[in-house]
Write a structure and sequence with these properties.
Elements: H1 3-10, H2 17-22, H3 27-32, H4 34-40, H5 47-51, E1 59-61, E2 66-70, E3 76-77, H6 79-92, E4 96-99, E5 105-110, H7 115-123, H8 157-167, E6 183-186, E7 190-191, E8 200-207, E9 210-217, E10 226-233, H9 237-251, H10 262-269, H11 271-282, E11 291-292, E12 296-297, E13 305-307, E14 313-317, E15 323-325, H12 326-339, E16 344-346, E17 352-357, H13 362-366, H14 369-375, H15 380-383, E18 386-387, H16 402-415, E19 425-428, E20 442-450, E21 456-464, E22 476-483, H17 484-501, H18 508-519, H19 522-538, H20 557-573, E23 581-582, E24 585-586, H21 598-602, H22 608-617, H23 629-643
Parallel strand pairs: 6-8, 7-12, 18-19, 19-20
Antiparallel strand pairs: 1-2, 2-5, 3-16, 4-5, 4-15, 8-9, 8-11, 9-10, 13-14, 14-17, 16-17, 20-21, 21-22, 23-24
Helix pairs in contact: 6-12, 8-9, 9-11, 10-11, 16-17, 17-19, 19-23, 20-22, 22-23
């Protein structure tokens, strides 16, 4: 018995409820009866069809209507397809469209009696909704400017078509996997599709002068994919992919739905044993990893216009939170036809590229009504923002999310405008993380928080320092359970540091590597935003506590606390706490002793609680000082309770 067989046997003592449902019927039998299901209405809708089988074809029952997930391979839509999607949204779906992080479309508010008609109308223009939900291979993502961008080495769309031919609309592959399976393939040098965030990641690489792909496997929420130490040539991709799916289908776990993504099988058997099984299945022996060539942000990040290899331009229509309309999709298709080739590309960051616009026509194109309508969002905070569905349309959502993201982007645009910069802010409405907040520069995860009066309000956990450029890295949590009304100020202060100390053209990701994470602990950064919120939003002191450009603390928490305390004392009183300090030591024979309320006496605008915090941070005896920032944060929260304004 192989190690994979042993692992499966150990996890096969029971099956989950979804597997029980899947055994009731064949998905294709449900699909062939779609017209009957639509005609019968909700009264005749079988529970298992609503709960599972219709999702195999992108149809999600929302109680009173349906959401339809539309597969858009690589985000490519031609003129007829874009036009048809817009028309369907207008006619059947309240003129509403969501653009998703899998570079595809979600139509909402569809009536049950229209679902068969909608799928037929989509099929007429070559659009499929097959396998966009539940236990299937999902839409394959890539660079939205694949085959066009200057940094694109391998055009992946021909490869994607071969990969899809294995499973798409193939009855043998509908609903046979243990869990959903996400795939990304990137043939460009810039990471424009979160390439390390999928179950299977084909990452542009070079091996002995041959271009191909390094393989990374096993991403899930809160975890980036692992390097499989494997290189595949372009012609090997379909065979590798089919073998990989087959091994996962055969040995993936079917007991606990919370622990049956690919990563859990990899963790049990080890990535080398898993790859050996894939090689045995494919009959091929793959090379060890080459040199990764992914080394930058998207060539279009931070901008809404990018020149293509053929001399034309791609223009990014920045769509706030991915919320679009059928009317505007029709208008976008028409303007793409008038000024380009009619082709558009959906992007991972929920925006739309109109491609192949000649240099002579680009200015005229940008003056078109629909393009001008969205030009207002072409700024730092909207350009690369992501937000998944929230409470309005998702049963898992904890906060509205999309409107929250838009509101905060507007707030930051007005309070911290920054030129020649780039920041990725990603919002997830719940812990499932569909807004991929974990790899954002600044990530926000929806939760419920309490305001100063103890009332339950919409809140977020704030994350900092995610990476997607040369390698993937999950962000660290900076603050837990902040009301959104407070969180916007914490983020404002982080961005003020970025504005003050960034180099010319430096992205926030690079700035975090060079300055924030390099110089300060996450606890210190959390204190920095918290103390500024207290000083300004709560106490109205109109005074800024700044981070040093060249700190000497070496990210040591006790040193950071002492240093911050000394600087707060000087900031709030105008006096030095001590005449001479050397590291953590007071370099004086008789160091100044103060009372707990000293700062309040010198500055009556400072509450005694804050004075005591500074006293504890700067005590003349090192052993008596506060040692960890968590103690300071707790004390600051008490000040917030007593001083919060409605």
């Amino acid at each position: 018995m192989t190690i994979l067989e042993k692992a499966l046997e150990a996890r096969s003592k029971k099956v989950n409820k979804v597997e029980v449902t899947k055994a009731l019927k064949m998905p294709m039998d449900v699909y062939t009866k779609l017209e009957e299901i639509a005609a019968a209405g909700y009264e005749g809708l079988a529970k298992e069809d609503s709960a599972y089988f219709l999702k195999c074809f992108g149809l999600f029952d929302k109680g009173e209507d349906f959401m339809l997930r539309v597969r858009v391979p690589a985000g490519h839509l031609d003129y007829a397809q874009a036009l048809r999607i817009g028309e369907i949204a207008q006619k059947y779906g309240n003129d509403y469209i969501d653009i998703t992080t899998r570079m595809q479309i979600e139509l909402r508010y569809l009536k049950i009696e229209d679902i068969a008609t909608v799928l037929t109308e989509l099929k007429e223009v070559g659009i499929s909704t097959f396998q966009t939900g539940v236990d299937n291979p999902r839409n394959i993502v890539t660079d939205p400017l694949d085959g066009m961008a200057y940094d694109n080495i391998i055009e992946t769309m021909p490869i994607i078509k071969k990969m899809q031919s294995i499973f798409l609309e193939n009855p043998e592959w509908v609903s046979v996997l243990p869990r959903k399976f996400n795939t990304g393939i990137l043939g460009s040098m810039s990471n424009s599709c979160n390439i390390f965030g999928h179950d299977c990641c084909f990452v542009l690489a070079q091996k002995e002068g041959i271009f191909g792909f390094n393989i990374h496997l096993g991403a899930r929420v809160g975890m980036q994919a692992q390097d499989a130490n494997l290189f595949v040539c372009t012609e090997e991709v379909p065979a590798f992919f089919e073998a990989l799916l087959t091994v996962f289908k055969s040995y993936g776990y079917r007991d606990n739905r919370n622990k049956n993504r690919l990563i859990f099988l990899l963790n049990t058997v080890g990535i080398e044993n898993f790859i050996a099984a894939v090689e045995a299945q494919s009959g091929l022996a793959f090379q060890t990893a080459g040199i990764s060539m992914v080394q930058s942000h998207s060539t279009a990040m931070g901008s809404n216009r990018v020149m293509l290899r053929n001399g034309t331009f791609a223009h990014k229509v920045v769509v706030p939170s991915g919320i679009f309309t059928g009317t505007d999709m029709i208008a976008t298709a028409n303007v793409a036809k008038a000024y380009g080739t009619g082709d558009i590309r959906l992007s991972y960051d929920q925006n739309i590229y109109v491609v192949n616009i000649s240099q002579e026509k680009i200015s005229e194109f940008e003056n078109d009504a629909v393009v001008s309508k969205y030009a207002q969002y072409n700024n730092l905070y909207f350009n690369d923002m992501i937000a998944c569905a929230g409470t309005q349309t998702c049963t898992f959502g904890v906060i509205p999310n999309k409107p929250d993201a838009i509101d905060m982007a507007h707030f930051l645009s007005h309070t911290v405008p920054i030129e020649n910069a780039m920041v990725r802010m990603n919002w997830s409405a719940c812990p499932k993380g569909c807004g991929v907040h974990g790899i954002a520069d600044i990530g926000l995860e929806g939760c419920k928080a309490k305001d100063s009066e103890g009332n339950k309000v919409d809140g977020v956990h704030v994350f900092l320092g995610g990476k997607i450029t040369r390698k993937a890295k999950e962000a660290h949590i900076l603050h837990k359970t902040l009301p959104i009304s407070e969180a916007k100020h914490h983020i404002k202060y982080l961005l003020k540091v970025y504005a003050k100390y960034k180099h010319a053209g430096e992205s926030f990701e690079a700035f975090d590597d060079r300055f924030l994470s390099a110089n300060y602990s996450f606890q210190a950064l959390g204190f920095y935003t918290k103390i500024n919120h207290v000083l300004n939003e709560l106490l109205s002191l109109n005074i800024s506590f700044e981070l040093d450009e060249y700190p000497q603390s070496n990210k040591k928490e006790d040193y950071e606390i002492f240093n911050f305390g000394l600087r707060l004392f000087k900031l709030l009183t105008g006096e030095k706490r001590f005449v001479s300090v050397l590291g953590l030591e007071v370099n004086e024979i008789k160091p100044r002793k103060i009372k707990r309320d000293e700062v309040s006496k010198l500055n009556p605008n400072v509450p005694k609680q804050l004075s005591e915090i500074i006293y504890n941070m700067t005590h003349e005896t090192k052993q008596e000082r506060t040692k960890v920032f968590s103690e300071v944060i707790v004390a600051l929260k008490e000040i917030e309770k007593k001083n919060s304004r409605p």
